[in-house]
Write a structure and sequence with these properties.
heterodimer; A: 5-stranded antiparallel sheet; B: mainly beta; 4-stranded antiparallel sheet; about 55% strand; globular
Chain lengths: ~110, ~110
């Protein structure tokens, strides 16, 4: 059974810091991995998607890496800003028994203070 | 391009009632997935529809059902509501189901 774990559960940093969020998964047979952010009471916003054949993806101040063999992904946020405060979720897509679905981690709640 | 829309945004029901939630995907997207989010269980996959057919299903009881129309709009129905069904229900759309998922704002359901 695929399990997705995100560490830390919560993080508080001063503005301007570079930070790394971690995501680990137990089954390396994934199709892709996606990072999302969720603002309180809102839906999810897609940040980056990494295909299983890729090692990393970049968008602006965000960089996500994927190491399938070790079952890990990291989301690097450069020069953090208060507007980055949100919950960050990673999700892996895998095929199992004919089913194809996204399995989410519990998220990392990030607070960036001025 | 308009994003994923969900209606209603908020809903209050009592135990035993039934509820129908609606999701309109991004134009051109044929896959619609539904998720339940609660503080205790996090985000859990309910089901996915593609071209009016349920293609994937999570581990939820039969009280949870859905359908998809020819214009890709989807509805989710929960019958005989229980207190534990209180949650944020999110739908997501994508072109064919395996690419980037785009989420709607969610419907917050409170069961009293």
């Amino acid at each position: 059974k695929q399990e997705v774990t995100q560490i830390p559960a919560a993080l508080s940093v001063p503005e301007g810091e570079n930070l790394v969020l971690n995501c680990s998964f137990t089954d390396s047979a994934i199709y892709n991995l996606q990072w999302f952010r969720q603002d309180p009471g809102k839906g999810l916003t897609s940040l980056l998607l990494i295909q299983s054949s890729q090692r990393e993806q970049t968008s602006g101040r965000l960089n996500a890496s994927l190491d399938k063999s070790s079952g890990r992904s990291t989301l690097y946020i450069a020069a953090s800003q208060p507007g980055d405060s949100a919950t960050y979720l990673c999700a892996v897509r895998r095929f199992s028994g004919g089913y194809n679905k996204l399995i989410f981690g519990a998220g990392t709640r990030l607070a960036v203070h001025p | 391009k308009a994003g994923v829309t969900q209606t209603p945004r908020y809903l209050i029901k009592t135990r035993g009632q039934q509820v129908t939630l609606s999701c309109s995907p991004i134009s051109g997207h044929r896959s619609v997935s539904w998720y339940q989010q609660t503080p205790g269980q996090g985000l859990q996959f309910l089901f996915e529809y593609f071209s009016e057919t349920q293609r994937n299903k999570g581990n939820f009881p039969g009280r949870f059902s859905g359908r998809q129309f020819s214009n890709s709009r989807s509805e989710m129905n929960v019958s005989t509501l229980e207190l534990g069904d209180s949650a944020l229900y999110l739908c997501a759309s994508s072109l064919s189901g395996q690419e980037t998922q785009y989420f709607g704002p969610g419907t917050r359901l409170l069961v009293l």
